[in-house]
Amino acid sequence: MTLHPIVIELIQLLMILFLSPAFAGWVKIVKCRTQGRTAPGLLQPYRDIARLFAKDVVLAENASWVFRSTPYIVFGVTLMAGGVIPLISVDLPLADTADIIVLVMLFAIVRFCTALAGMDVGTAFGGMGSSREMMISSLAEPAMLMAVFTVSLAGSSTSLTQMVTVMSGHAFVIRPSLAFSLVAFVLIALAETGRIPVDNPATHLELTMIHEAMILEYSGRYLALIEWAGMMKLVIYFSLGTAVFFPWGISGSGDPLSLIIRALFFVAKLAAGGAVMVLIETGLAKMRIFRLPDYLGSAFLLATLGMIAFFILE
Amino acid sequence: MLLDYVSLSAAAAPLDIAGFSVLLLLGSALCAPFLSRWERLLIPAAFSLATVASLAAVHAGFTALVTGSNSAATVAMGLPGLPFNLRLDPLAGFFLVVIGLLSAFVSVYSIGYVRGYLGRRPTTQLVLFYLLFLAGMFLVVLADDAYLFLLAWELMAAASYFLVMYEDEVAANRRAAFLYLVVAHVGAIAILLSFGVMAGLTTGSGGFQSYTFDAMRAARLSPAWGAAAFFLSFFGFAAKAGVIPLHVWLPEAHPAAPSNVSALMSGVMLKTAIYGMVRVAFDLIREFPWWWGGIVLCFGLVSAVLGVLYALMQHDLKRLLAFHSVENIGIILIGLGLAMVFTSFQFHSLAALALVAALYHTLNHALFKGLLFMGAGAVIHSTNERNMEEMGGLIHQLPWTSALFLVGCVSISGLPPFNGFVSEWLTFQAFLLSPVLPHPLLKLLVPLGAALLALTGALAAACFVKAFGVTFLGSWRGHRRKEQISEVGPAMRLGMLGAALCCLALGVLPTFVIGWIDNIPQQLFGGEIAKSAGSYGWLWLTPYSPERASYSGPVVFFGILAMVAATYLLLHVRRAAIRRVPLWDCGFEKVTPRMQYTASAFAMPVRRVFGFFFAVREQVELVSPQNHPVMADTINYRLRIRDRFWGWFYQPLADISFWVARRAGKLQQGRIQVYLLYSFVTLIVLLVFL
């Protein structure tokens, strides 16, 4: 018995939706352990989201429809992005509609709307966050594109399912182009998901916050949606990394048992990846904002080097 | 019978309609001065006629593009022995559609916009030159010989010069118009020389017949002469298109013109230069080595990156948009350069992909830039303010304009599901297919090119967050009371709405349009992109093969829409109260609009990162009454950012030409005896040498 692709797609969307808070909780647990603190538990993010949904919304007087529609757009578009990446199967109806360039641009939509919302109520904090976020993304997004382009050249396709199929068909060899782009990808993924050393999701100190500054005026269900979308984004970046650089164990038959096995394998990959991210975060300090161009510039350079290596060596 | 057809088939009909459109415009222009006393009647009548003429041109161009027909005509006008030759092939048809579509929307918009000048200044000259300007652009595309082409080119340049000069009491406008005229004519001379080279080397017929494009197509140029012809014309067209480093006139002239004219100049006049490049490279010369394409690609990359960086530094809304035109022309040139490289190595289907990407971006840029300039015009119309630092919060006063302007911002930032994304996606696909190219230098250039294109897109998004955020969001910063600001009239809204809907339609349903554009490379060099296969083919954009890459605009659009709607509805099952409260001021109790982030502040991080591209001068001055070192009453902050090209290229050039002019001016003594002496000496010299 094999499941219909649409059913697999739905399973995947539900996985992204409901695994992401657990993943955020897992990251927090590992982080607390490495720093010698007591962890709040795996279910705390679910409780946070539920609490925010139950609360009333407080809105600034001059907030416009841009401010009010942004949380829904952010959430919907992030979910859409989650439907595009192959997690446990390559038989995804949505995957053919959007390739890897579209995926990067879906995140650009999220960022564009969040930055606009940050400027909507007219506080200095919001503008500051938007300005910094757009500066970082204007360096991170091209690096991201270059890193995934190198892989798509190696897989001779920009479609994610096709890349996974082609790349997992090869035996594992270290290719210089892919090594460069993997390093670049990790650097960029830290920046795009707002982790240390670029941004600190736990801070509300005005001099350092970036993403938090943009969403400072949100409350209630709006804030819940944005927080949840942020958690999904973290999972999506991990799945993108695994799909692009470690594509083994994604494609396979559509019968329920092997799907469950692959789902468990995916959860294991996620847990391991989260632990690695925490180790990186704990080992680094947050950078000053004007040192970030060096950080992101080197990521951009590495990604471009990877592509040049592909053109010249392969 | 005025038109004497070469081919009397039914396929000649589109050219008839295009001719009718041009004649209608010229005729209305002729009548306009007689109506100058009844301006209230003149404005709606003239712009309605312009709309009709534009729609007729769209119809003609569309028919020629879709059917792939190629019709020509000779009109016995002009000088004896030098008739005008007209031709409407798919390439000309496509550009007729681009120009006609935007000018139809802008003409509707103008009915409302130009009425704003009533009682302040005479509008007849604006109407007159507007009509001539449109006619000139249509004729440039239709011309099939060098003579008519240059005539139409000059008509377009002269008419737009007077339009830039419309508000001529401002010294800056006069200066901008003069600069525009100088660059336009330097460019025109280069184009003339290029046609001269090609016509001079035609074989056979000789005489007056060599100036037709048909004769030039038949000519076989040696590599050196071919390069001379191509690069002369490239220089000329690049000057018109505002390619860096020939861009200095553009950010001066486009903002100086009335906004409806700015929309046309940025949206479609620059595209006539793109048309010229495609016509000369792919139709007249046809065979070229790869490095021509490489040079075009390099100019495109430099224009794209520097254009968007300069745009980020602007705080004048229209200047910002003008610099974005430089950027987008760069993106178009990237596609064009790639197409030339692919053609020279005989990869015809890849060349078709790159050319389609360039042409699709041409169409898209016309629509969203037209929309943005119309939006900027609406803002200026309602606020009397061009400086973004004096605006803010206009989304409450101008709900229509702000929503439509936002569509333009999203489109130009290349975000799906709008149209700017599709053409950038196609350009990226062309880049990703280029490992087949055999040349080592290209293997280095192409990855760098892709990197720079990605950088451009990201910076453009940053720039439009700034433009929209500072202008429309936050709270009002200006001096006027914001209650005096009101939404623009229905005609202006209708013009903007049309362009915005086109932006969305071209983004969601790109397959149809790209299928039509595909006729152009097919006719120019016999290459075509892969047609979408299988059932529901219109749903999928697969430019090479379905395994290689696919994009489905409708599914992405409706997918996003469905997910957003589902989230919204699920959350509104239970009604939660929304409480409106004053802005949280951190207990400071004195929050003023001046504390918001300004445009300069927003762009500051980018300015610091890419500072070496600009000549930045920043001054901070503390004014304190008792010369107190710390406690200042007022702080004066001055920031001046210029692009470096003015100091590097233009200032020395201007200095030298003025110096030469002064020297040459010494010949003019003002005494009749001296002039007679000059004549006498000239006569002697001629007698001796001839």
Question: What characteristics describe this protein?
Answer:
heterodimer; A: 314 residues; globular; B: 690 residues; two-stranded antiparallel ribbon; 24 helices; 6 strands; 5% strand
Describe the model.
The complex is a heterodimer of chains A (314) and B (690). Chain A has 314 residues and is mainly alpha-helical. In chain A, helix 5 packs parallel to helix 11 and helix 9 packs across helix 10. The model of chain A has no long low-confidence stretch (mean pLDDT 90). Chain B has 690 residues and is mostly helical. Among the domains of chain B are: 228 residues, no CATH class; 77 residues, no CATH class. In chain B, 66% of the residues lie in helices and 5% in strands. In chain B, helix 3 runs antiparallel to helix 10, helix 4 packs parallel to helix 10 and helix 12 runs antiparallel to helix 13. The radius of gyration of chain B is 27 Å and the shape is globular. The two termini of chain B are 47 Å apart. At the A-B interface, strand 1, helix 3, helix 4, helix 5 and helix 9 of A face helix 16, helix 17, helix 21, strand 4 and helix 22 of B.
